[in-house]
């Protein structure tokens, strides 16, 4: 029996590694201030009570542009059930570019901007760390992070079905339920654009 359990543990761990995932303890999402053109400063904590799909993007990144279009479809479908998607740009001149980004790519949810320092602090990265964009963070109604892209990316976030299923799981959880006991933090993947450091 012990041998079967050990074998199953090895198989499960191998499968998790192949998927590029790592289980980490859940964590409370730190607050984040960002500015939305025409609306002023917003705080991430203002969206508590909703499931938040927070994407950190560069307005000039083709992967980010595509991710925002995919998230717009998901927002249109799941917004009435309690989803709030938000893009926060942090590339050079993001403050000047976010309005055009939202308009040019028909983004159907708020697009704001924050400084690079604020975003790196939120992500737990230093200025010396390498990372890719987009970075996706999924936060439940109670403000707990359930998914965060690894610094060097995750091919799964390019798949609408994966992102949608993660969000639907969070939407289906009762607002008063306890948060899950783990967070999926994806490992590196080649599909996203490497951010310049």
What order do the helices and strands come in, and which of them pair?
Elements: H1 2-19, E1 21-24, E2 27-28, E3 33-36, E4 40-43, E5 51-57, H2 62-78, E6 83-89, H3 94-104, E7 111-113, H4 116-123, E8 132-133, E9 135-139, E10 144-148, H5 160-172, E11 183-186, E12 193-194
Parallel strand pairs: 5-6, 6-7, 10-11
Antiparallel strand pairs: 1-11, 2-10, 3-4, 5-9, 8-12, 9-10
Would you give an account of this structure?
This protein is of the alpha/beta class and 197 residues long. It has one domain (22-194): Glutaredoxin (3-Layer(aba) Sandwich), CATH 3.40.30.10. It has 5 helices and 12 strands. Strands 1, 2, 5, 6, 7, 9, 10 and 11 form an 8-stranded mixed sheet that branches. A two-stranded antiparallel ribbon has the order 3-4. It has a two-stranded antiparallel sheet with strand order 8-12. Helix 2 (62-78) links the parallel strand 5 and strand 6 (83-89). The relative contact order is 0.20. The model is unreliable at 1-23, 178-182 and 187-191 (pLDDT under 50).
